[in-house]
Amino acid sequence: AQEDLAQSNRFVTLFYSELDPVTRVLRFSNAAHNPPLIWRRQRHSVERLDAPGLLIGLQPDADYGCEQVQLEPGDVLLYYTDGVTEAPGITGDRFDEARLIRSLESACRSGTGSQGILDQLFDRLDRFVGADRQLEDDASMVVLKVREEVMLPSVPRSPA
Asked: Is 158 left (phi over 0), alpha (psi -120 to 50) or beta?
């Protein structure tokens, strides 16, 4: 609860979203969590999904903005924790958001489904960190891919 957090001097980040599967409208709010990434299939580009909001536990009456976005067939959403972007590599630098974006673009262009994209992202992260090294922090990722619409070829009507 809010009171427990306030007394413990701990804070929580949270990203909340809900998708209407019929209209493909995704509504979301963010409490200072890493903004999820969205790969737009038609534009072949990645955007951040962000909305204004403070950490949970900082202010009891904090306001959280609610945004929405229209998803299109083939779009891919990536939710992730900071353990992914802060993962240290063999050279000491972090995996960082730019590297995650490049990895997401590459995985999405491969045309695979959501599990295939997730597998490619974790493979890339594992190679960066090093096979025999453990991650310092929890690294969680969730991938959602909007189902591609099947385009049937139009058949000319024969005269009755």
From this structure: beta
